[in-house]
Structures are given as structure tokens and as C-alpha cells.
Amino acid sequence: MSNLNRNLTILLHMKEYCEQIEKTFEIFGKNIEEFNKNVVFRNAISMPIFQIGELANHLTADYLTETQNDINWNEVRGMRNRFAHGYFDMDYNIIFDTALKDIPIIKEFIDKEIKKLMK
């Protein structure tokens, strides 16, 4: 698989996870209090964030360097690491804020990149 196809495939999967977060907000609303008390809501948001971070680890080094001014990949991967290593002090407010504010930015970037890579 070429690096172009590899990055495109990864971005397409990342987009799916962004859309899952959007759908979760459609179902549960954008209410932090509900998020804090509802484990199903938290899991439905947290797992896609984790997966986006995991997928970011598989983008090519060249691509990460080329796009680092658009997306802070270190932060994306860092959030994944917080989930993966079982830090029990996960701040639900940060997770919610990431889903609400950062994921739409990441999705917009991914949409543009997919169009560019598919040309």
C-alpha cells in the first residue's frame, strides 16, 4: 500500500469516528451534566476519541510533519495515551470539551484532506 493510500485510509476511518461522536451528541445532547453521570454517554464519546488517537499513530511521519501546522498530532495521540494507560484521573470535562470543540475542527481538516488526497 502506498503512503498516499495508507494516509487516506486512516483519515477515512478517523472521519467515521468523528461522525460517531456527532451522532452521540445527537442522541444524548450536548449536556455536560448528563455526560458526567451517564457512563454510556461517556463511553460512546471516549472510545472514538481513543480510536482517532490510535489511528494518528499510524499516519506516515512525512504526513504528520506536513500537516503539523494544521493539527497538533501530539495532542491527539496524547489523549489516546491517557485513555490507554488507564489513568484513573481522567477529567470528564476535558473529554467532553475535546469532543465538543476539537473533534469538529479535526473532522473539518480531515474532510479537506480526503478531498485533496482523492484527486
How far do the termini sit from each other?
A: 17 Å
* Largest sheet features: none
Name of the CATH first level: Mainly Alpha
CATH architecture descriptor name: Up-down Bundle
Apparent shape? globular
| Helix percent band | over 70%
Average pLDDT score: 93
Description:
- The chain is built from 6 helices and no strands.
- The protein is globular, with a radius of gyration of 14 Å.
- It is an all-alpha fold.
- The two termini are 17 Å apart.
Considering the chains and any ligands shown, give keywords for the structure.
single chain, about 120 residues, mainly alpha, Four Helix Bundle (Hemerythrin (Met), subunit A)
Mind sketching the topology for me?
Layout: H1 3-28, H2 32-37, H3 39-56, H4 61-67, H5 73-84, H6 92-117
Helix pairs in contact: 1-3, 1-6, 3-5, 3-6
Short characterization:
It contains six helices and no strands. It has helices spanning 3-28, 32-37, 39-56, 61-67, 73-84, 92-117.
